[in-house]
Amino acid sequence: MTTVHRVDYSGEGLTEAGLAPTPWQQARRWVDEADERAETGDDVPEPRALSVATVDASGAPNVRTVLMRFFDERGPGFVTSRDSTKGVELANEPRVAATLVWPAMFRAVRFRGVVEEVAGEEVHAYWASRPWGSRISAWASRQSRPATGREQLEADFDRYAAQFPDHGSPDDVPVPDFWGGYRVRCREVEFWAGRRNRLHDRLAFTAVGAGGGAAAQDVDVYPSLDDPAAWTVLRRQP
After folding, report:
1. Measured between alpha carbons, how far is 99 from 110 in angstroms, rounded to an integer?
2. What does the pLDDT read at residue 4?
3. What is the pLDDT of residues 119-130, one digit of tens each?
4. For this structure, is 196 an active site residue?
5. DSSP character for 211?
6. Under 8 Å between Cβ of 231 and 208
């Protein structure tokens, strides 16, 4: 018989009284604390690892983990090839779900909404911050397509490395025309905090319109995450 490993979560939980007034402020607080935990310990190695769920043309789900590269009151964002599986699926169906999970902290944040493409100037600013090798890899990888082997990947990397040599400038490697960023514009943000005896806390912000001026059923409204009037809070059973 397989032994089941069980952990009784010892998180501090999350109460309505301790909840920030907006989903942005609460998410910002938790992300900052996860970043700090990553700098001071080894149990949160990638605090901005973001699982992104899409659906394919048949409606079958896909989920993968990326790194959250943009994060402000408009929502979390990431970069990828537009020709990748997720890029193709998002072009066909922009509705998306994404999750930040910090198991060692007994916390998770769930985002649900639609994606929009990140503006060119933001993408270029982020691209310039990437190490030279990461920029070369973006050119070398035809993301999600079959590869004949590791040798092919390394040969393609070497080819682009020769084409765009490293001179220590952010302009050494141009942004590929097939590469860009996506931001999740949310209508729901849920905060999960693990507690003992599986009696976890789940507090969810749901959009009620931009500044309260639109009906809750208006699915085209994706308000700022930092507008208190645009959100209502609901506690869900664990």
Report:
1. 5
2. 85
3. 999 999 999 999
4. no
5. G
6. yes
- Which residues 6+ apart lie within 8 Å of 147 measured at CB? 153
- Ordered alpha helix ranges (H), 81-170: 85-92, 120-129, 132-140, 150-163
Q: Are 25 and 226 in contact (CB under 8 A)?
A: yes
Whether residue 110 contacts residue 186, with contact meaning beta carbons closer than 8 Å, is answered with: no
Stretches where the chain sits below pLDDT 50 are 212-219
DSSP SS3 for 85: helix
Beta bridge partners of 182: 78, 117
Q: How far is CA 130 from CA 8, 82, 221, in A?
A: 40, 18, 33
In the set 159, 196, 198, 235, the catalytic residue is 198
How far apart CA 120 and CA 209 sit, in angstroms, is: 27
pTM here?
0.92
Nearest to 161 by CA among 179, 135, 142: 135
